[in-house]
Amino acid sequence: MLDGNPRLNLASFVTTWMEPECDKLMTDSMNKNYVNMEEYPVTTDFQNRCVNMIAHLFNAPLGETETAVGVGTVGSSEAIMLAGLAFKRKWQNKKRAEGKSVDKPNIVTGANVQLCWKKFAKYLEVELKEVNLRDGYYVMDPVKAVEMVDENTICVAAILGSTLNGEFEDVKLLKDLLVEKNKQTGWDTPIHVDAASGGFIAPFIYPELEWDFRLPLVKSINVSGHKYGLVYAGIEWNIWRSKEDIPEELIFHINYLGADQPTFTLNFSKVPLNNTIWFESSYWSVLSIYSAWLRGISKHNDELQRQCNGAQRRIGEAGKFNIVSKDIGVPLVAFSLKDNSRHEASEMPR
């Protein structure tokens, strides 16, 4: 049934409907290959404009004529790999300059992180230090996270919109605690914010919440276009605070398709369904999001929040469930059975 009706897919945080104009744009662009920037310069311009708009949305400290630093990827896994690579290489360069070992890098996260973080740690040989969750507290505790930081920590990863219950981790408190520890130790441990779910929610529903580049230790942010970015599955954005946060040796320059083309991605040729048409449709949607932000309003997110509040109220009134989602987070309702002696949670979707 789900194969026949994607609109019934409520489990994987993906957009299942777009405007007819976007559908047509995608169909008309199916035969493009984004990697050939000389052949498709306007598509490249679309990506760069999307990066700039998202960077401004996330309060990147850009000058009036300064270009934002970022890239579109095929999903969270590629985005996290690239962000992690940048942190690891910067840490290695610093340690080598100090004459110290680079054998044991680590990264600190909560145990609630998405699988892509575990892949990054295993594939790129970085120790994953996970802050354990506890009953009633389903996100990373900033205090415990900072306690786990040592001189080999390449970064601390905070989640803006946990997969478990939609909750935002306290990035501001994490920053404050890290600033103090860095001051005491002489380290400069940075922060990455995995805003795959919450990056297109927080700026509109919680504009005063400090989680982004307003915090100096936040060096990079990833956000999913195909979650709350209003685009079909297959696009993630990775934004860096400045060009200094990507070591130059990780950027490749190629010229066999024409002029010099800098690239910082894991793959080269890209299947059309994961590149050109997504940049173009993302540009359409990001324009809508950005203009809504400029007006100080986002009807889409307001409606999501209204429906979320209504669903939470009605589920609570049933008297059979514990609400485990929090007031500040992505607009979803997470709940558990009060009495699981008669039913398993897995039975509820059926």
CATH topology of the largest domain: Aspartate Aminotransferase, domain 2
CATH class of the largest domain: Alpha Beta
CATH architecture of the largest domain, by name, is 3-Layer(aba) Sandwich
What's the CATH H-level superfamily name of the largest domain?
Type I PLP-dependent aspartate aminotransferase-like (Major domain)
Rg result: 21 Å
Pfam families: Pyridoxal_deC
EC number: 4.1.1.15
Family: Belongs to the group II decarboxylase family.
InterPro entries: Glutamate_decarboxylase, PyrdxlP-dep_de-COase, PyrdxlP-dep_Trfase, PyrdxlP-dep_Trfase_major
Give the helices and strands, then pairings.
Layout: H1 20-28, H2 41-57, E1 69-73, H3 76-97, E2 106-110, H4 115-123, E3 127-131, H5 142-148, E4 153-159, H6 171-185, E5 191-194, H7 202-205, E6 218-224, E7 236-240, E8 252-254, E9 261-263, H8 276-294, H9 299-317, E10 321-323, E11 335-337
Parallel strand pairs: 2-3, 2-4, 4-5, 5-6
Antiparallel strand pairs: 1-7, 6-7, 8-9, 10-11
What does this structure look like?
Belongs to the group II decarboxylase family. Keywords: Decarboxylase, Lyase, Pyridoxal phosphate. It catalyses: L-glutamate + H(+) = 4-aminobutanoate + CO2. Its cofactor is pyridoxal 5'-phosphate. The modification N6-(pyridoxal phosphate)lysine is found at residue 227. This protein is an alpha/beta fold. The chain folds into 2 domains: 24-294, Aspartate Aminotransferase, domain 2 (3-Layer(aba) Sandwich); 299-347, no CATH class. The chain contains 9 helices and 11 strands. The chain has helices spanning 20-28, 41-57, 76-97, 115-123, 142-148, 171-185, 202-205, 276-294, 299-317, and strands at 69-73, 106-110, 127-131, 153-159, 191-194, 218-224, 236-240, 252-254, 261-263, 321-323, 335-337. The strands form 3 sheets. A 7-stranded mixed beta sheet has the order 1-7-6-5-4-2-3, with helices on both faces. Helix 1 packs antiparallel against helix 8 (276-294), helix 3 packs across helix 4 (115-123) and helix 5 packs parallel to helix 6. The radius of gyration is 21 Å and the shape is globular. The mean pLDDT is 86.
